[in-house]
Amino acid sequence: MDPSAILRIHLAAIVENWRLLAARAAPGAVAGVVKANAYGLGADRVAPALQAAGCRHFFVAHLAEGVSLRGTLGPGPMIAVLNGFAPGADGDSALVPVLNSLGDVLSHAAAGRAAGQARRALLHLDTGMARLGLDAGEQARLAADHSLLAGLDVLYVMSHLACADEPDHPLNAKQAARFARACAMLPKFKRSFANSSGLFLGLDYASDLARPGCALYGINPRPGAPNPMRQVLRLEAPILQIREIPAGASVGYGASFVAARASRIATIAVGYADGYLRSLSGQGVAAYRDMVLPLVGRVSMDLITLDVTEAPGLSPGDAVTLIGGAAPSPDDLATRAGTIGYEILTSLGDRYRRDYGAV
Ligand SMILES: *Cc1c(COP(=O)(O)O)cnc(C)c1O
What we know:
It is a single chain. Strands 1, 11, 14, 15, 16, 17, 18 and 19 form an 8-stranded mixed β-sheet that branches. A 7-stranded parallel β-sheet has the order 3-4-5-6-7-8-9. Strands 2-10 form a two-stranded parallel sheet. The chain has helices at about 10-25, 35-40, 45-55, 65-75, 100-115, 135-145, 170-185, 330-335, 340-345; strands at about 5-10, 30, 30-35, 55-60, 80, 95-100, 120-125, 150-160, 190, 210, 235-245, 250, 255-260, 265-270, 285-290, 290-295, 305, 320-325, 355. It has 9 helices and 19 strands. The protein is about 25% helix and about 25% strand. α4 (about 65-75) links the parallel β4 and β5. With about 350 residues, it is an alpha/beta fold. α1 (about 10-25) crosses α3 (about 45-55). Pyridoxal-5'-phosphate binds near residues 33, 196, 211, 213 and 215.
């Protein structure tokens, strides 16, 4: 028996999700956000699949992610680096930096003028995140003096929503208004605004280029409402051992679980080192066919234990499902772990065998 777990990633479902979002955003374009290794699912597989479906714009967070992605995709698609290029580093001219401050604007514009060749860039305006992007004062300076942009070829001016997953949050409309006002004070550039959830707020949020990430990977862009996206993940793992324990026996570190009855405990080779978060201790559930198998005891680094007393037919080597199918979705698992689906995905470890076919 191969004891390693298998992570099934349904590329075709990711592509279907991209098409669904593209239909929502039309006539605007839709990028693929593939930062953090495509949210843990594998940018080297996800990005080419999106490219084959017609995606022409990609976003990564780090310069190194962009360099690697350019190698994967070849010339052609835009690859924008959200965190920009490090000060002094010109980066790679095949990649497009997001300019996140007036300082970024001035240095890249100066480099473009010095080279006699305008530098392609995205201009990021902060409208309510206080994280990256030109703040209101910097935006005003740019609005007052457009010559500061000489030397730049601004492909898009962008902003990022703080509360798009809460449709009724007043900050959404405020950010949209601030973005529109700031854009009106600048030369006419194309705009990039919505993330995944932003695409479900209404057409005026879609802009010329939407930047969805999580929804491509099956995370619900409208928490609390039915998930319009296809699920793309299934994590399956074989049972290593089944142990019969008497009532009163404890399981795992800290003896945090004590069996109330004679029980059968199955051990699985997945743990917090694989991204099965330790906060799922006593909270997780797995599935065998349609049967729910509660996780008991603490999540260890490399192992978890399931109560399979109610599934007497199970034996070592049988595969149980930890994510997807009758087991929790990444969003459901996140709720049980006290986090968000994004963290479940980006925590998935590299010890899984990965299969990119059907789920
Ligand atoms: C991560 C990120 C996105 C994608 O957000 P999702 O919520 O995953 O769709 C879009 N824009 C920026 C600036 C980001 O950092």
